[in-house]
Structure to design on (370 residues):
């Protein structure tokens, strides 16, 4: 965040900053979604919706699980939320008892620990390693689980690494957690943004798993603040009561806009953009390797490359700060994502054009040559 603020200051002073620290797509919201929003706003009927979301949107999301994954999910299990953030808050508000421990990954999405702490839970971070694709294994889970552990929250593809959880590993962890009487939450916010193979949804591993999703990333709707949570049927009523109390309802205009998110013409736009993200990844990874960064686990999704910079710098934070000041290239140091060897890692976001990525690579090359 400090780096982002500094990048903005430099930009305001007239410097040309290449933003590779930004965790949101650079593409605007697709036209059909904007048109649906405008049409709804023209009716003036911007009233509260039910707390769980517009019934037709919940139905559309259920339909999307069937067309995209072949998975049958009842609309009664779908809760429309204020982004994945709202979904994570609701899930933890429902499941997290004071003093209970929650297994997370390190590196991982930094807000997760704070969500757990918000409900007086204790975040326990599993240091995940490159040889395991920066994802937890069943052995990691067993090692970190104890009588105070209430559940685990993992993401696939993950931020900051862009790596996927192996389906068999996730299935074995789901089974193990089930046997222990714990709860599994899987954050699938980067689904749709995978390059090569499609991710499978954890919903196929059992109807007792909470799944978090969002319109932010694949659907290019970050600022609309809309996402969803799929809950086991037996929690639906508790989640509804929490949603009524905490949020009243998700944003009405955003929900009407999102009704157009699953239309074929919108999906065609999104698939073109997914292909472009794939081309950017395929450009950036080898270029960073040529510069001397080590990419120890191939990023298969999201729009991040988590690079080991230990051959080039001793402290990634100092490196990122100096790189920004000297070259105008903004990247995120590992310390934003945890305390497991953060000094050796940097996150590069390819949320800018290949031309700009090429310019960034050239600037970093000159910087390293000095
Ligand atoms: C892994 C992960 N989960 C959740 C979020 C929250 O996203 P939003 O609330 O915009 O849907 C983010 C945002 O970057 C993320 O990277």
């Amino acid at each position: 965040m400090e780096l982002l603020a500094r990048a903005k200051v430099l930009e305001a002073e007239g410097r040309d900053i290449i933003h590779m620290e930004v965790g949101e797509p650079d593409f605007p919201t697709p036209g059909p979604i904007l048109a649906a929003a405008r049409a709804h706003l023209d009716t003036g009927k911007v009233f509260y919706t039910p707390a769980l979301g517009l019934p037709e949107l919940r139905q559309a999301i259920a339909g999307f699980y069937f067309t995209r994954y072949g998975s049958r999910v009842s609309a009664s299990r779908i809760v429309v939320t204020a982004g994945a953030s709202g979904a994570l808050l609701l899930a933890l508000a429902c499941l997290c008892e004071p003093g209970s421990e929650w297994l997370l990954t390190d590196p991982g999405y930094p807000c997760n620990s704070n969500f757990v702490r918000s409900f007086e839970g204790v975040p326990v971070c599993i240091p995940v390693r490159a040889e395991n694709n920066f994802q937890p294994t069943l052995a990691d889970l067993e090692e970190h689980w104890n009588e105070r552990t209430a559940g685990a929250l993992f993401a696939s593809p993950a931020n900051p690494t862009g790596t996927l959880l192996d389906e068999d590993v996730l299935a074995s962890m789901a089974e193990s957690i089930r046997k222990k009487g714990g709860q599994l939450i899987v954050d699938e916010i980067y689904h749709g943004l995978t390059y090569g193979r499609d991710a499978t949804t954890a919903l196929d591993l059992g109807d007792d798993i909470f799944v978090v999703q969002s319109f932010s990333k694949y659907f290019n709707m970050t600022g609309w603040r809309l996402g969803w949570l799929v809950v086991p049927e037996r929690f639906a009523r508790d989640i509804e009561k929490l949603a009524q109390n905490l949020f009243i309802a998700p944003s009405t205009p955003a929900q009407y806009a999102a009704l157009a998110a699953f239309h074929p013409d919108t999906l065609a736009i999104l698939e073109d953009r997914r292909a472009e993200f794939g081309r950017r990844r395929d450009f950036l990874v080898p270029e960073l390797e040529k510069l001397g960064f080590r990419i120890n686990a191939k990023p298969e999704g999201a729009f991040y490359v988590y690079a080991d910079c230990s051959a080039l710098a001793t402290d990634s934070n100092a490196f990122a700060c100096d790189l920004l000041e000297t070259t105008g290239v903004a990247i995120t140091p590992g310390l934003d994502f945890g305390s497991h060897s953060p000094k050796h890692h940097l996150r590069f976001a390819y949320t800018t054009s290949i031309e700009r990525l090429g310019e960034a690579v050239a600037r970093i090359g000159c910087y390293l040559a000095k």
The first helix runs from residue 2 to 12. The longest strand covers residues 149-155.
